């Protein structure tokens, strides 16, 4: 099946919008965004991407973002099903990739359970795009053969993660949603055995005009000398030392 075929009436596309820069949309995403009846989008989807919608497309903010009052996941699923049952051609637009910390799986299951026809359009995930923009290779033959993508929420008091095994298995760690918990993340990693001098990069608003990269050490993150704003990707490990800044 071609991913960019026009949506049928009553069909939903779970579409990855990429990290923000509209030129990083896939061709399928651009086509479907420009030719649908309704777009249900998350708060992290950039205005530039939403501007690709045709005049008359219903733009519905479904976003859930830390701390703000927002629709529950069930409400979002119900809304998608309702729109599809009205015969609308629906794009469910999510930042990055729909299945990377994007709850796309839950929405897919809800659509399948309601017998709604759907397709999935992968997107460029922030955990890959942000380091690339900062000139940091997420894998480098001289440094790592593996890497881990994690959510920073796991650093809270009720962490389910075995941090010691984590740092032993993965020389490079890429944290999503790590801005708020950055000090706790750093403390846990130090406790797990990483050196205080371990380099990290905080990449804020990757691919957008406000993009900004901060390089620091684990020690500086643990003691609050550096802080991070949301949305940021935090990448930790020696690949940060391989950085070559390629942007003006
Ligand atoms: N599905 C998304 C991730 C959603 S979780 C994806 O695949 O990229 C939200 C987190 O993604 C944010 O807290 C931040 O860590 C990261 N993120 C999303 N867009 C970003 C951007 N442009 N720059 C830096 N981080 C970003």
How would you sum up the global shape?
elongated
Mean pLDDT: 94
Order of helices and strands: EHEHEHEHEHEHEHEEHE
Distinct small-molecule ligands in the complex: S-adenosyl-L-homocysteine
Give helix % range.
25-40%
From the N-terminal CA to the C-terminal CA, the straight-line distance is: 41 Å
CATH topology of the largest domain: Methyltransferase, Cobalt-precorrin-4 Transmethylase, Domain 2
The total of beta strands comes to: 10
CATH architecture of the largest domain: 2-Layer Sandwich
- Helix- and strand-based class? alpha/beta
Beta-strand share of residues: 15-25%
Any chance you could write out the topology, listing elements then pairs?
Blueprint: E1 12-16, H1 27-33, E2 38-41, H2 47-50, E3 58-61, H3 73-85, E4 90-94, H4 104-113, E5 118-121, H5 126-134, E6 148-151, H6 163-169, E7 173-176, H7 182-191, E8 199-204, E9 212-217, H8 218-222, E10 232-236
Parallel strand pairs: 1-4, 1-5, 2-3, 2-4, 6-7
Antiparallel strand pairs: 7-10, 8-9, 8-10
Helix pairs in contact: 3-4
Describe this structure in words.
With 248 residues, the chain is α/β, with parallel strands linked by helices. Helix content is 26%, strand content 19%. It has helices spanning 27-33, 47-50, 73-85, 104-113, 126-134, 163-169, 182-191, 218-222, and strands at 12-16, 38-41, 58-61, 90-94, 118-121, 148-151, 173-176, 199-204, 212-217, 232-236. It has a five-stranded parallel beta sheet with strand order 3-2-4-1-5, with helices on both faces. Strand 8 and strand 9 form a beta hairpin. Helix 3 crosses helix 4. The model has no long low-confidence stretch (mean pLDDT 94). Bound molecules: S-adenosyl-L-homocysteine. One of its GO terms (molecular function) is uroporphyrin-III C-methyltransferase activity. Pfam families: TP_methylase (PF00590).
